[in-house]
Design brief:
By secondary structure, the chain is an alpha+beta fold. It is 33% helix and 26% strand. The structure holds flavin-adenine dinucleotide.
């Protein structure tokens, strides 16, 4: 087996890994290599998401999500403009359909203001219908900043920048072992190659906890996969949705509730729900992995989570298997919607870190270990935030890895 060399190995060719690799290569001039298991980039969360450029409305002020979403938003929009990547800052509405949602709607409006969002407007039923004529709500928020984009296209563009900066992306390269005992980490991949790298950045998404363990680091969390299933609106009914229509989210969960999203490539999606998945890369209702299910069953945090949220979880399973139940949730927002207006769409799987006490980690988590940085929780809005997360990682690496930056 031949051994090749890199200054920094980044594991994971989703948008976070590629953006981090690009930022590291541009800021240090060092040789950065991305190792991606699949035959192409963005095959998991990045290529299976809603394609929404989030504004930063939802997140606790001061949290990593709030800071990175706002900065990431600005960087992403500027990047798309500069590179001519299709995007549309079309705005969205968040719709309260019941009086008991108004407190949560107030909290969202306050968070938006605290996070410095301009132009977020509290609106009544009539103004809601001026923006989205088919919506039924008692009150809502209009968020002008929200937009849509294709995150796979952004990832590919970032990868081209990385190559131009002297970096490399290796697809079809699944990391199987990491020897961190030696000077210069030795990373073996399933294609029989071996890479010796001075430093490692783990951006492996649904597998990030396992990559941390392979590297001898206790991640302190476990990834529990939550599948998000979509329906698509049939073309003859696209007119029901102008742009993006969201419900008021349940503040106990990091998921936003099923919503309508106009896609940048055309079409309208409805979803995603959030169903416990028994396979980390399981895109179908019947997907099952003995290894993944056994790992969940062996984790006390999983059982504590199940104890706390079993009722909500059961509801999500019901909506997953019953189209009328899924449509029912959407009809609260859009009463004119009929079951036959929706056809099954794709699905994505969220990598949600769960703590040993059963809580779902709300904020991003990026941890340092000797010679390594591990991204251990990067759920939504990490695609929107990716360029800012990349800056954060590059700054962290400069100090932690004692790197000379290109400017120094
Ligand atoms: C249903 C859904 C909807 C979402 N909607 C939005 C949205 O609208 N807006 C938004 O901002 N965010 C959204 N998100 C979140 C967003 O997609 C993710 O936060 C983001 O894509 C995370 O990127 P990542 O690079 O960390 O992970 P990923 O894209 O999952 O990439 C991780 C990569 O690591 C690779 N990998 C894993 N193990 C190995 C190994 N052993 N060796 C080599 N490579 C490995 C995988 O193949 C994968 O390509 C959504 C997510 C989902 C699931």
């Amino acid at each position: 087996m031949s051994t090749e060399h890199a200054d920094i190995a980044v594991i994971g060719g989703g948008i976070v890994g590629v953006a981090a690799a690009r930022a590291l290569a541009l800021s240090t001039g060092l040789r950065v290599v991305v190792l991606e298991a699949e035959s192409a980039l963005a095959r998991h969360q990045t290529g299976h998401n809603s394609g929404v450029i989030h504004s930063g409305l939802y997140y606790r002020p001061g949290s990593l999500k709030a800071r990175n979403c706002l900065r990431g938003y600005a960087l992403l929009v500027a990047y798309c403009r500069e590179r001519g990547l299709p995007h549309d800052l079309c705005g969205k509405v968040v719709v309260a359909t019941r009086a008991d949602e108004l407190t949560a709607l107030n909290t969202l409006a306050e968070r938006g203001a605290a996070n410095g969002l301009d132009g977020v407007r509290r609106i009544g039923a009539e103004a809601l219908r001026e923006i989205e004529p088919e919506v039924a709500g008692i009150q809502g928020l209009f968020v002008p900043q929200t937009g849509i984009v294709n995150f796979t296209a952004v990832t590919e563009s970032l990868a081209a920048d990385l190559s131009a900066a002297g970096g490399e992306v290796r697809t079809g390269t699944r990391v199987v072992t990491i020897d961190a005992r030696v000077e210069g980490l030795v990373i073996d991949t399933a294609d029989g190659r071996s890479l010796r790298a001075a430093h490692l950045v783990n951006c492996a998404g649904l597998q990030c906890d396992r990559i941390a363990r392979l590297a001898g680091v206790d991640p302190g969390i476990q990834i529990i996969p939550f599948r998000g299933e979509y329906y698509e609106l049939v073309p003859g009914r696209h007119h029901l949705v102008r742009n993006l229509i969201y419900p008021v989210p349940d503040p106990r969960f990091p998921f936003l509730g099923v919503h309508f999203t106009r896609m940048i490539g055309g079409g309208v999606e409805a979803g995603p729900n959030a169903v416990l998945a028994f396979r980390r890369e399981g895109y179908h209702r019947t997907s099952f992995s003995v290894r993944d299910a056994a790992a969940m069953a062996a984790y006390s945090g999983f059982w504590r989570m199940a104890g706390k949220y079993w009722k909500t979880g059961a509801g999500e399973f019901h909506r997953s298997f019953s189209k009328p139940a899924f449509v029912g949730a959407l009809q609260r927002l859009l009463p004119a919607l009929r079951e036959e207006d929706l056809v099954p769409g794709g699905a994505g799987v969220r990598a949600q870190a769960v703590a040993p006490d059963g809580s779902l980690l709300d904020d991003f988590r990026i941890e340092k270990a000797p010679r390594m940085i591990h991204v251990l929780n990067a759920p939504s809005p990490a695609a929107t935030s990716s360029l800012s997360i990349a800056e954060t990682i590059a700054t962290m690496a400069a100090g932690h890895f004692e790197l000379r930056t290109a400017a120094s």
